[in-house]
Amino acid sequence: FYPEHFLDDEGRYRSSPYLIPFLIGRRSCVGESLARMEIVLFFTAIMQRYRVRPAPESAAKKDDILRGHMGSLRVPGDYRLIFSRR
Protein backbone atom coordinates (compact mmCIF):
# COMPACT_ATOMS: atom_id res chain seq x y z
CA PHE A 1 0.00 0.00 0.00
CA TYR A 2 1.45 3.31 -1.10
CA PRO A 3 -0.48 6.36 0.12
CA GLU A 4 1.46 8.44 -2.41
CA HIS A 5 -0.74 6.94 -5.14
CA PHE A 6 -3.67 8.89 -3.71
CA LEU A 7 -1.91 12.19 -2.96
CA ASP A 8 -1.18 15.05 -5.33
CA ASP A 9 2.03 17.13 -5.29
CA GLU A 10 0.74 19.19 -2.36
CA GLY A 11 -0.18 16.14 -0.24
CA ARG A 12 -3.95 16.42 -0.72
CA TYR A 13 -6.20 13.46 -1.54
CA ARG A 14 -6.56 12.75 -5.25
CA SER A 15 -9.29 10.35 -6.34
CA SER A 16 -8.41 7.61 -8.75
CA PRO A 17 -10.77 6.27 -11.43
CA TYR A 18 -9.23 2.83 -10.82
CA LEU A 19 -10.13 2.67 -7.13
CA ILE A 20 -13.68 1.53 -6.42
CA PRO A 21 -14.30 0.94 -2.72
CA PHE A 22 -16.66 -1.77 -1.63
CA LEU A 23 -20.35 -0.95 -1.06
CA ILE A 24 -20.68 1.22 -4.15
CA GLY A 25 -21.23 0.43 -7.79
CA ARG A 26 -21.39 -3.16 -8.93
CA ARG A 27 -19.55 -4.33 -5.80
CA SER A 28 -22.35 -3.25 -3.50
CA CYS A 29 -24.53 -5.78 -1.76
CA VAL A 30 -27.94 -5.87 -3.39
CA GLY A 31 -29.66 -7.12 -0.24
CA GLU A 32 -28.02 -4.76 2.27
CA SER A 33 -30.94 -2.34 2.54
CA LEU A 34 -33.40 -5.24 2.75
CA ALA A 35 -31.31 -6.90 5.48
CA ARG A 36 -31.18 -3.66 7.48
CA MET A 37 -34.97 -3.30 7.28
CA GLU A 38 -35.46 -6.91 8.34
CA ILE A 39 -33.21 -6.45 11.37
CA VAL A 40 -35.34 -3.49 12.46
CA LEU A 41 -38.53 -5.49 11.92
CA PHE A 42 -37.24 -8.50 13.89
CA PHE A 43 -36.04 -6.30 16.74
CA THR A 44 -39.36 -4.43 16.83
CA ALA A 45 -41.34 -7.69 16.86
CA ILE A 46 -39.24 -9.03 19.75
CA MET A 47 -39.66 -5.82 21.75
CA GLN A 48 -43.44 -5.84 21.15
CA ARG A 49 -43.90 -9.46 22.27
CA TYR A 50 -41.41 -9.70 25.13
CA ARG A 51 -40.38 -7.73 28.15
CA VAL A 52 -36.58 -7.72 28.28
CA ARG A 53 -34.72 -7.20 31.55
CA PRO A 54 -31.29 -8.04 32.91
CA ALA A 55 -30.78 -11.29 34.79
CA PRO A 56 -30.07 -10.76 38.51
CA GLU A 57 -26.43 -11.83 38.19
CA SER A 58 -25.91 -9.47 35.24
CA ALA A 59 -27.38 -6.44 36.97
CA ALA A 60 -24.56 -6.47 39.53
CA LYS A 61 -21.92 -6.35 36.77
CA LYS A 62 -23.45 -3.42 34.86
CA ASP A 63 -20.31 -1.26 35.03
CA ASP A 64 -18.12 -4.11 33.77
CA ILE A 65 -20.48 -4.71 30.86
CA LEU A 66 -20.50 -1.07 29.81
CA ARG A 67 -16.70 -0.91 30.04
CA GLY A 68 -16.34 -3.78 27.56
CA HIS A 69 -13.16 -4.89 25.80
CA MET A 70 -11.07 -2.57 23.68
CA GLY A 71 -9.38 -3.72 20.51
CA SER A 72 -9.84 -2.60 16.94
CA LEU A 73 -13.53 -2.47 17.92
CA ARG A 74 -15.15 -1.85 21.29
CA VAL A 75 -16.93 -5.05 22.32
CA PRO A 76 -19.37 -4.97 25.25
CA GLY A 77 -18.99 -7.61 27.93
CA ASP A 78 -21.19 -10.69 28.28
CA TYR A 79 -24.67 -9.95 29.53
CA ARG A 80 -27.55 -12.26 30.42
CA LEU A 81 -31.11 -11.18 29.69
CA ILE A 82 -34.50 -12.53 30.68
CA PHE A 83 -37.24 -12.50 28.05
CA SER A 84 -40.76 -12.83 29.41
CA ARG A 85 -43.95 -12.72 27.35
CA ARG A 86 -45.99 -9.54 27.68
TrEMBL record:
UniProt KW keywords: Heme, Iron, Metal-binding
UniProt: heme binding residues: 29
Gene Ontology MF term list: heme binding; iron ion binding; oxidoreductase activity, acting on paired donors, with incorporation or reduction of molecular oxygen, reduced flavin or flavoprotein as one donor, and incorporation of one atom of oxygen
Gene Ontology BP terms: organic acid metabolic process; xenobiotic metabolic process
One Gene Ontology term, aspect cellular component: cytoplasm
InterPro entries membership: Cyt_P450, Cyt_P450_E_grp-I, Cyt_P450_sf, Cytochrome_P450_fam2
Cofactor entry: heme
Family from the record: Belongs to the cytochrome P450 family.
Protein name: Uncharacterized protein
Source organism: Macrostomum lignano
